Iron(III) transport system ATP-binding protein (Xaviernesmea oryzae), 342 residues
Amino acid sequence: MAKLILNRLSKTFDLGGRPAVNDVSLTVREGGFLALLGPSGCGKTTVLRMIAGFEQPTDGSILLGERLLADASDMVPPEHRNMAMVFQSYALWPHMSVAENVGYPLKVRGISGEKRQRKVKGALSAVRLESFADRRPADLSGGQRQRVALARCLVTEPDVVLLDEPLANLDRHLRQEMEETFREFHARSGATMIYVTHDQAEAMALATDVAVMSEGRLLQVATPEEIYARPEGRLVGGLVGQGAILSLPSPEGDRRHLDWPAVQRLLTAEGDAPRADILVRPQDVEIAAEGAAVTVLSVLFEGERYALRLSLPDGQALRAFSRRPVKVGEALSIVIRSAWRL
């Protein structure tokens, strides 16, 4: 296996129109698990389709190690890339058994007999479906069908596995179960995995690296921890996590991480100083005896805690959590333990 490299990748569908993907460069490390995260229409699925070989770049190139997979003038066919793709719709043959579905890629490659049976059995064992080998897809639940699609990927021992919003059709319980299956699959296969999603919780739970996209452009690539704690810019800060972005006087110098004394100075500053975007996460907002005055706008009970929406005196809103119930309209004092200048 080798690194997957996207070099200034662009794709335009309409001549003279806005690019669906615009000058995207990133390197997916060998054996890594990259999540392409962004809202619908941001270009993430187009990037995935170009990697798979279903679309040709308008500009830029795609390389697997030193091997050129595609550029504007040449393209390796999908079947010669040693990649596997898991679709949102599962894409299983309804007239085939589970074992036949899983073994189909091997059949296409001319692998038969005991070797194919052994590989199919191993792939089904990896996704805990050995006892379902003779069933048809119609007899399976959504989560089981998704595991069959994963086994079909595993059986070919691909260099790269591409996943296009594979959990979108599943309920919350099955999503959590499948997230664990994906993690096991990644650890077992050792394949490089690229996972397209608009759900930031999925991206954070699964990926070793997250690439955030908006309007065809790549905004930031980092580990989940880095992208959550230190987002680059307002768009990334708004897409990742539940934080509120406040407009406050710009802090002095190039300092980006702000503690409570620094935030308090900004909240109480007077005059017409230049403004900056300050990201505040709800877990960093603490109800206190003394602090900044806020009014409770809404309260949502989440079982182990209450999710609050609060208003500062100037009308700006932020979020917080509370262990005790509060009432809409109640006046509180808060301390913001940590904030991040975008």
The mean pLDDT is 91.
